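Re: the 186-residue chain
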Amino acid sequence: ACPTGALKGPRKIDPRKCISYLTYFGDGITPRELREPMGMWVYGCDHCQNVCPRNAPWLAKAKGLPVNEKVSAMQEDFNLHRLLHMDTLYFTDRIWPHMFYMSDADIWRWKMNVARSMGNSLDEAYVSELIAAFRENSDERVLGMVAWALGRIGGSKAHTALSEFLPGSPAVVQEEIRCALEESVG
């Protein structure tokens, strides 16, 4: 049931593979082998909750609930473009009021997760966004994931950008770029 294989049996989980754990608390760049299985999740994951037999009665009741208008109203604040390019002010004004338990020190994590999500979409429309994000960020975890996402999406524009970014990037980012160039079709 878990796309990353984090469920190890009844009541047993490996947090090092758990999408929720990695998107909330992971302190480094997401391991390569988990990036594709993590799919489009940016923050958290409820997959195990949705398949748990104990939750079936509650989930059945929830299907009949009306759309939450407050949640729908803030949907635009959480679009991938805005999250990838957010600064501290945007986080404080738009994200923190809904997720007050998060710190603006975690903005890098949001951006890294958004880049992974964009890469997993395989949508070439995100290539320009990712290139801009590489140029505007300094966090190696974000840069590394942006490089991976560009390689995952592929195409000549992504390949050219990765080749341009290689010289002068920090060593850990260069490694991500090299892997992305090997995997991308440019």
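The CA atoms of residues 17 and 97 lie 29 Å apart.
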